[in-house]
Amino acid sequence: MPNPNAYILTQMTWPEVEQALPTVKIAIIPLGAHEQHGPHMVESCDAVLAEEMGKRLTEKLYPEAVMTPTINMGVSPHHLHFPGTISLDPTTLIAILRDMMKSLKQHGIGQFLILNSHGGNQSTLGVAVDILTRELDVRIYYAKTTASAKDVMDRRIESKLYGHSCDREVSEAMYLAPHLVRPDKLEAADYQEGRWKKLRPGNPLQGFYYYEEMTRNGCIGDATKASAEIGKEIVETALERLAKAVQEVL
Amino acid sequence: MPNPNAYILTQMTWPEVEQALPTVKIAIIPLGAHEQHGPHMVESCDAVLAEEMGKRLTEKLYPEAVMTPTINMGVSPHHLHFPGTISLDPTTLIAILRDMMKSLKQHGIGQFLILNSHGGNQSTLGVAVDILTRELDVRIYYAKTTASAKDVMDRRIESKLYGHSCDREVSEAMYLAPHLVRPDKLEAADYQEGRWKKLRPGNPLQGFYYYEEMTRNGCIGDATKASAEIGKEIVETALERLAKAVQEVL
Amino acid sequence: MPNPNAYILTQMTWPEVEQALPTVKIAIIPLGAHEQHGPHMVESCDAVLAEEMGKRLTEKLYPEAVMTPTINMGVSPHHLHFPGTISLDPTTLIAILRDMMKSLKQHGIGQFLILNSHGGNQSTLGVAVDILTRELDVRIYYAKTTASAKDVMDRRIESKLYGHSCDREVSEAMYLAPHLVRPDKLEAADYQEGRWKKLRPGNPLQGFYYYEEMTRNGCIGDATKASAEIGKEIVETALERLAKAVQEVL
Amino acid sequence: MPNPNAYILTQMTWPEVEQALPTVKIAIIPLGAHEQHGPHMVESCDAVLAEEMGKRLTEKLYPEAVMTPTINMGVSPHHLHFPGTISLDPTTLIAILRDMMKSLKQHGIGQFLILNSHGGNQSTLGVAVDILTRELDVRIYYAKTTASAKDVMDRRIESKLYGHSCDREVSEAMYLAPHLVRPDKLEAADYQEGRWKKLRPGNPLQGFYYYEEMTRNGCIGDATKASAEIGKEIVETALERLAKAVQEVL
Amino acid sequence: MPNPNAYILTQMTWPEVEQALPTVKIAIIPLGAHEQHGPHMVESCDAVLAEEMGKRLTEKLYPEAVMTPTINMGVSPHHLHFPGTISLDPTTLIAILRDMMKSLKQHGIGQFLILNSHGGNQSTLGVAVDILTRELDVRIYYAKTTASAKDVMDRRIESKLYGHSCDREVSEAMYLAPHLVRPDKLEAADYQEGRWKKLRPGNPLQGFYYYEEMTRNGCIGDATKASAEIGKEIVETALERLAKAVQEVL
Amino acid sequence: MPNPNAYILTQMTWPEVEQALPTVKIAIIPLGAHEQHGPHMVESCDAVLAEEMGKRLTEKLYPEAVMTPTINMGVSPHHLHFPGTISLDPTTLIAILRDMMKSLKQHGIGQFLILNSHGGNQSTLGVAVDILTRELDVRIYYAKTTASAKDVMDRRIESKLYGHSCDREVSEAMYLAPHLVRPDKLEAADYQEGRWKKLRPGNPLQGFYYYEEMTRNGCIGDATKASAEIGKEIVETALERLAKAVQEVL
Asked: By its UniProt entry, which PANTHER family does this protein fall under (chains A, B, C, D, E, F) (predicted)?
């Protein structure tokens, strides 16, 4: 198992980075959010999960990858009415990514994978990739942390709706970072009637709605059905597929 | 059938707009692109299809909707290596949308549907909605013009890959605006091997690639299998579903 | 007469553009507005007139010119208090022009003529030219669509003030695009007293005023005196002079 | 004659400003440039002339006006190939004007006259007025310093072309600020053949050209025919007309 | 000792934040950097130290303060030539701070302390405070993490120059986060001759120079003289003074 | 003594600039402010002092330096509640500096000294230097006009607090530009109790406060103790040191 001093930039000195660079082809940028996750998960959930996934993925890609500092806030306007949520403007997130890639390109790294745990960041990443690929002359990939294990989710998750502080996410946290979970507070979604039902994926329209229009407690799905074991299957499947996918495009 | 002077803003005088406004709840903003569509479709294809769909949808929503001028260029960096393509920066498209909604809000319209025919605009729309909903205090929806008829597409389109100057799009054009098509030039995709296969929807990674990495002639699918009849079924199904979906959220 | 497929980008496929490019020296960019034009003209008036002029001028310049998509909204803050007007911020219009020229420069076109039908865009064009010429290393020209026929206007137009939904503009529309005009609604200006008289060209001061400070019905001049024949003389004179002027600087 | 401490902000203490404000209705903002003016005028010419005109005009408007600091650089890309020229980007000039008006509005001043001596700033002022009037909710006027005396110029200036370091401008400087002129270096324009002739006002096309494309020594007209007496007639006529025009709109 | 779930936002659920807010008067924003720290400290040094100081200070201010997520990259252009350094543009850092404060203001928090461990961020903070205080109508304070213990530093640190990966910083890390230090790699600065000597604080001029112009190994001072005990005295003194200072202005 | 026509750009023609450039290594950019200076100094104080210092310093550096136009407004939000103050946004000041340096770089000048008389500009200069050095590939220095004579100030100034319209600044003005001072209005500071005492340099916290929170009359220190003789010692000492410092880094 490689030493973290050899692939996690936050834990490396500059001579260690210098030594690592000759084999490095890609930098993994973990991206999360700081937003409400219901009564049973802490608000840094996405940031921590992205970082934990990032560490494991980068280790698998050693010595061809390094991991950058985690972007620990994201685009979360939908959650701003719940106490504590902090949301970056999409242009701010793009500016952060630009500065990171520009700096790392100077060190000789020309490929990037943004490893994103928060759905609310996806559109911004689509835009960032369109803008920055050409502006900086780099190759940029992005991935939802565990989306590649969708088949596992569909098999293991009972809730019809999942995706935020739900059976899936709590399971992942139980496996990757159990301190994110308040096991004594686990709750299923407390759904509201409303416009949101017409705007979920698969409907003719998409659009902005606040999360409290959908769920009173800020969760969806049913976190009481989460388990570390489910989390493990999702996470390990995703990691394996991500590692393979990255190796294929490098 | 309502008179276009009663719901298409480009064809109305200001007293006609004034007369229409009291019942108007939503403005439909057609959004297209100006980009290569292979040897058998002209470059304004997306702009014209969005406008044609916009007209029909707005008519169905009369007297609760008006249609704005069409945004006739979009975010098309992937196509820039094909002659003639013009691409807006995502920030430019957001600026156009901001100015349009800000102007129309002053006239009393507070809900918007961006009716988009070009996949490359979708991420930018996601970002635009996140930014502008809160900045302008409006409600914004967006929809791909015919995506709600996905079941019809899956039934009627034989090609495994479709979405750009393909069986589906040429069919839609044959029905809605046949002058967009060069019937004597219809071709199937001329695919290339390459990285793009690893980046299509459903793969673990997403990322930017140029269209010529995927297809030499700029098409996908097989346009030779297109027909106005297929187009009609897709278009009319989508229009019916879109109209219903809009009515439900108004 | 050349085939539109050979010089109007919106009506061309990419192989047709590729074939046209070797002789093309300049791109014509029609620029209009979406704004109130009184009770007798529809709001797309400027956009349509610019496009019609653009087609005719580009045809005259064949095979040295191509016409781009029309920019169908412009800088119209003065008209925002009339129902339906949509105004772009000047910075948005500059962004659109930047993106268009940047895209077309990549296809090998380094000279541009912005053919503008709306007075309210002129200052923005002056600024755009100052910024973009040096930023993009291109040559940019701009022209009011029919301003070069000022002598004809002065001879044929009786109204002292003209320039917006007036004898001149309605005449041009009657010749170029009669569907823009509501012949049964033609009215002369309904002027107001006020500050605007001190701010018309020729006065010591210039400044911003809203159009309704000047005219209750949103017109100036006297549209009842318009005719397609006057329009024809203005338009054809201007086209001839514009074509000659472009040829002299190419 | 009022004391400059009562209307020139740069020469006032804050209690003096406080005392002046109750009668003040408008702030005069002198705007110049820093650019080459041929071999016989120094590069601050426009800034100094604007300031001198500003002082005299503000005095005439006492106690209804105050004069702000002079904006001593402007938009001069056309002159950048001559040694010493400094050019502001148009967006920078607009930012300066925004900050000035925003600050002064807080002190209770809601009307502004930008008194501009440099033709290259005019488009930017047109744009600034369109943007800032609505953004800041103020009234903004602008004027070329002596343009209102055009009839005098046409009578007294022999050169066909004038406008930059010419008979007119040198005359104005001889009267207002003789230290700007090198009397032993006076020269007529040293014109070049070229594209510029097709782009002067009155031609069908407008566009950007560098000043050295037009004149080798950076002047136009014939400065050897300048005189303080001509300058006096132009300046005093313009001042009288400007003062009257301002009083009429206040 | 208060529970971290009661004042560290990253470790709180939204109901916990909701419960904390009624007594909260200020949010502490830790700000660091990701930059080279010589051969004996890892590149996240500043981010980790800021976070550690933030935790301790927020605890002391309980229940009047909460701590936000740490901004783990900063303005580090001077270090960009050392492998691994990532630098944010100052405008990016200001954008992050704007978004954070705007979000938190919506939750009812109107005072902020940016607790900054990196000298290179100070100018940007000065600007951020000037801009954001008025724009967001909030009160903003900022402090270098341990600068208030300058007397202790002057007494305990032998090196004439200190401030970056030096006796002082390594001592602080040994006390607060020993994993940041490579004890077997401790080195004194390897100074270069050069321009930098003329640009250190106290000289007539200030200016930009790259860190490698000053020191070959990226350190200043003499880290071999660092100790956890020195670190403790600096840190605890600073924390006490910071807590008192915050309480006095709340 | 060199002729001002040989080193002060505002007083030079372009052929004079052309003649000067071969020996010029640096441009001196005087930077001031337009802000209240209590009842005994006019609001242009900082702009005039910076320009006067600039002239003298540039003369000393002849023929290696030229002086640019003075930036006569600065970043003064703290003073905006006193009548007359005009404040530039920090981003505006950076834009001005960018445009100036970009223009001058084209004339062959690659080093700059921003000679700043106003403390409120210092943070913005720190940021400007970080951004523009790399963006424009130039060397940038900045200095407070007389800060290098701090030892003289400490010896000659009796007031404990000084820095704005105080013994020191009035003394400098009495020596450099006596017309800035109202000798019959000289007053000592009229201090207020308040939060500012906790935010002065040397305290643990820094932060934004309005000047009227500190002093009712807008001054600090005791201007009644100012003299031209003190001013002379400060100014001449600083000029000598600045000239030497610049020569050492050229």
From this structure: 2-AMINO-5-FORMYLAMINO-6-RIBOSYLAMINOPYRIMIDIN-4(3H)-ONE 5'-MONOPHOSPHATE DEFORMYLASE, 3-DEHYDRO-SCYLLO-INOSOSE HYDROLASE
Q: What is the mean pLDDT of residues F220-242?
A: 98
Inter-helix orientation angle F45-61/F167-176, to 10°: 60
Cα–chain-centroid distance for residue B147?
Answer: 10
> Position of tokens 């104005």?
D172
As a residue count, chain A comes to: 250
Domain annotation covers residue C1: no
Number of compact structural domains in chain A: 1
What is the 3-class SS of chain E, one letter each residue? CCCHHHCEHHHCCHHHHHHHHHHCCEEEEEECCECCECECECCCHHHHHHHHHHHHHHHHHCCCEEECCCECCECCHHHCCCCCCEECCHHHHHHHHHHHHHHHHHCCCCEEEEEECCHHHHHHHHHHHHHHHHHHCCEEEEEECCHHHHHHHHHHCCCCCCCCCCHHHHHHHHHHCHHHECHHHCCECCECCCHHHHHCCCCCCEECCCHHHHECCCCCCEHHHCCHHHHHHHHHHHHHHHHHHHHHHC
Instruction: Specify if C146 maps to a domain.
Output: yes
Q: What is the pLDDT of residues A77-104, one digit of tens each?
A: 999 999 999 999 999 999 999 999 999 9
With contacts defined as CB-CB under 8 Å, which chain D residues touch C206? 125-126, 129, 141-143
Q: How is residue E20 written in tokens?
A: 């904390």
Q: How many helices (H) and strands (E) does chain C have?
A: 8, 5
Does residue F1 sit within a domain? no
| A23: contact with E, CB 8 A cutoff | no
Nearest to D32 by CA among D24, D40, D41: D41
pLDDT tens, N- to C-terminus, chain A (250 residues)? 789 999 999 999 999 999 999 999 999 999 999 999 999 999 999 999 999 999 999 999 999 999 999 999 999 999 999 999 999 999 999 999 999 999 999 999 999 999 999 999 999 999 999 999 999 999 999 999 999 999 999 999 999 999 999 999 999 999 999 999 999 999 999 999 999 999 998 999 999 999 999 999 999 999 999 999 999 999 999 999 999 999 999 9
Q: What is the CATH number of the domain that holds E46?
A: 3.40.50.10310
Chain B interface, best mutation among A123, A138, A239, by max B CB count within 10 A = A123
Write out residues 45-84 of C within 8 Å (CB-CB) of D.
Answer: 75, 77
Task: Indicate whether F1 pLDDT > 80.
Answer: no
Largest Cα separation within chain A, whole Å, is 57
Domain assignment present for C61: yes
Q: Is C13 on the interface with B (CB under 8 A)?
A: yes
User: Cβ F126–E125 below 8 Å, yes or no?
Assistant: no
Of A13, A39, A98, the CB nearest to E15: A39
Write the pLDDT tens digit of every residue in F85-116. Answer: 999 999 999 999 999 999 999 999 999 999 99
Q: Which domain holds residue C64?
A: 7-249
F18 lies within 8 A of chain D by CB: yes
| Residue E37 burial by Cβ neighbours in a 10 Å radius (0-12, 13-18, 19+) | buried
Cα(B173)–Cα(B165) distance, integer angstroms: 10
| Selected residue of C46, C51, C73, C86 to mutate for chain B interface (largest B Cβ count, 10 A) | C86
Contacts of E139 in chain F (CB under 8 A): 207-208
Indicate contact of A with C: 3+ CB pairs under 8 A.
no
